[in-house]
From TrEMBL, chain A:
Keywords from the named record: Cell membrane, Membrane, Transmembrane, Transmembrane helix, Transport
Positions of transmembrane segments: 21-44, 82-106, 118-137, 164-189, 210-232, 275-296
Species: Lysinibacillus telephonicus
UniProt-annotated location(s): Cell membrane
Domain ABC transmembrane type-1: 78-292
GO CC annotations on file: plasma membrane
Domain of life according to the entry: Bacteria
Protein's name according to its UniProt entry: Sugar ABC transporter permease
From TrEMBL, chain B:
Residue stretches spanning the membrane: 12-34, 74-100, 107-129, 184-205, 239-260
Domain named ABC transmembrane type-1: residues: 70-260
Name the UniProt record assigns to this protein: Carbohydrate ABC transporter permease
Membrane-topology annotation of the record: Multi-pass membrane protein
Length: 305, 274
């Protein structure tokens, strides 16, 4: 690396050696206290029976994990989480991928406008989004229900129905996170050499084939990053509308693994169950990351930058 | 280029409808916050108020300590932003301009925190903040947010775009590191620092998950928490007041975004996140 010169030519070699650690110290202290240590402590708590108030914690080994995995609620929540993931990916991975491609290579005008309009909701509180959509989508008196009524369509009482509640909460979450994913994918796609696309077009290759054969492979490392954060951060963002609108209900039908861990800890005061569930979630996330990194290393070597 | 002309119009139409759906809630909140409750019930479809009234805002400021709540939100967002941008800047400088033992390992660990679910840290953090006696306080909200891997990442990417030779020359002239930061690096990465700061500010302004665990009394609430109180009265008499809280909650982030959008989009586009 070119930066070597900085460390070699310097007279005060010792300062040079200590300096980077000193610069990192503030970040490391904060993250150490509020990220790494809590992370380890949660894993520790997952082996204890505790209610957050009592002065004694009882060591129970893997019992919390067994309890959690035996609990039918956990499996319902896992199923919900899978549905959330599939819907989140459709709206926040597939759609922005296509839209970013269209804005960059199909359209000639209004690119700037689309970029700023698409990104805008990312800057608004998801609590605001949750409240507004709750009213707009109110099945009786909301504007959507009134307009649908003209065509004799009834809006389901989505907040009380299995399935529907997840669809609506996913849409509200997507309203917030979609634009960020669009910007990331757009950044990557706009880095693809224009000549390649031009040449493909002159050969009359249809747009959808250019997308699958050239654009997707050449932007795949950003694509995979967006794929991962759609799952990892999407599930966490969904916490807000779940908490604000349904509190996980009706009968856990809208809860996901993130909300359930919160519910176990701060509503039921079962820290052991919550910690076990969080640890399982984290293991799934880490597994996902490793799989995707392997995938990136093996299969994707096109992307220039 | 001409080949695809026929696809342009349909896509513009799709995008316009899409943007209408995305932005409709914002206009809805703006319009209904200025309506009387009567007007809101009589014309639920029209966004434009018949007579503009500030009654909802009045009612909001009398029923809630709204000024205090806005101030709390502002203090939290400002302190978090200032600390985070400094810690991120220092860390990014270390990663870009130094070679040291454990560099890659530390960078990997820092960046991997982006992928941790917040549930894995929430119970211990709650216990730490409580044992420090900071539960239900503005400082309890601030403390765990003082460093951020995302900021380190964005600023590292921005600093990497500066020609290393500039820094090398400065080092050969025996220029101190803090002066290099202040006089060379900072001016060159100012757009990235500006947009990262705005991003931090807005994230902290909108933060909900952590404050909802920590804050208990209305006097210490932030805007998103105050807003949450109105959900229970679905369709009730507070409907237009809730719209007023929504407007107050989003007005500052929206103004910041609309003013600095070029910088902000530029920073995210050029960071080339992978």
């Amino acid at each position: 690396m070119t930066t070597t010169i900085l460390s070699i030519k310097n007279k005060e070699g010792r300062i040079q050696k200590i300096a980077p650690y000193a610069l990192l110290l503030p970040s490391l202290i904060v993250l150490g206290f509020f990220m790494f240590w809590p992370f380890l402590y949660t894993i520790y708590l997952s082996f204890f029976d505790w209610n957050m108030v009592s002065t004694t914690k009882e060591f129970v080994g893997f019992e919390n994990y067994i309890d959690v995995l035996k609990d039918p609620v956990t499996w319902k929540v896992m199923g919900n989480t899978m549905l959330y993931i599939v819907l989140l990916l459709a709206v926040n991975f597939v759609v922005p991928y296509i839209f970013a491609y269209v804005v960059e290579f199909v359209l000639q005008r209004m690119k700037g406008f689309y970029k700023s309009a698409f990104f805008l909701p990312a800057f608004i509180s998801l609590v605001v989004g949750s409240i507004l959509f709750t009213w707009i989508l109110n099945p009786v008196s909301g504007p959507v229900a009134i307009i649908a009524g003209w065509f004799n369509i009834t809006i389901p009482i989505w907040s009380k129905l299995d399935g529907w509640v997840i669809v609506v909460i996913t849409l509200i979450t997507s309203w917030k996170i979609w634009g960020y994913h669009f910007i990331l994918l757009f950044a990557s796609i706009s880095g693809i050499s224009k000549e390649v696309i031009e040449a493909a077009r002159l050969d009359n290759i249809p747009l959808w084939r250019i997308f699958f054969r050239i654009v997707v492979p050449m932007s795949s490392s950003t694509g995979i990053y967006v794929f991962i954060i759609t799952i990892v951060q999407g599930l966490q963002f969904a916490f807000t509308p779940i908490k604000v609108i349904t509190q996980g209900g009706p009968n856990y039908a809208s809860s996901n693994v993130i909300y359930q861990a919160f519910h176990e800890a701060f509503v039921l005061y079962r820290t052991g169950h919550s910690a076990a569930l969080s640890t399982i979630t984290m293991i799934i996330f880490i597994f996902l990351l490793i799989v995707e990194f392997k995938f990136v290393e093996r299969r994707i070597y096109y992307e220039n930058k | 280029m001409k080949i695809n002309k026929r696809w342009e119009i349909p896509w513009h139409i799709i995008f316009f409808i899409f943007i209408l759906v995305l932005l409709y809630p914002i206009f809805y909140a703006l319009g209904f916050s200025l309506k009387s409750l009567q007007d809101a019930y009589n014309s639920p479809l029209s966004i434009i108020p018949k007579n503009i009234t500030f009654e909802n805002f009045n009612q909001l400021f009398t029923s809630l300590p709204a000024l205090k709540i806005t101030w709390n939100t502002f203090v939290i967002a400002s302190v978090v932003t200032i600390f985070k941008i400094i810690t991120s800047f220092l860390a990014a400088y270390a990663f870009v301009y130094f070679i040291f033992k454990g560099k890659n390992v530390i960078y990997f660990f820092l960046i991997s925190t982006i992928f941790l679910p917040f549930t894995i840290t929430m119970i211990p953090n709650y216990l730490i903040i409580s044992s420090l006696g900071l539960a239900d306080s503005v400082w309890g909200v601030i403390l765990p947010q003082l460093a951020d891997a995302m900021g380190i990442f964005l600023l590292t990417q921005a600093m990497r775009s500066i020609p290393v030779s500039l820094i090398e020359v400065a080092r050969l002239d025996n220029m101190e590191h803090w002066r290099i930061m202040k006089d060379i690096v900072l001016p060159l990465v100012r757009p990235a620092v500006t947009s990262t700061s705005i991003w931090f500010f807005i994230m902290a302004w909108n933060e909900y998950v952590w404050p909802v665990l920590i804050l208990k009394t209305v006097d210490n609430y932030t805007l998103p928490l105050a807003l949450q109180m109105y959900i229970s009265s679905e369709g009730g008499t507070n409907f237009t007041v809730a719209m007023a809280v929504s407007v107050i909650t989003m007005i500052i982030p929206l103004t910041l975004y609309l003013t600095f959008q070029k910088y902000i989009i530029g920073t995210f586009v050029s960071s080339g996140i992978k």
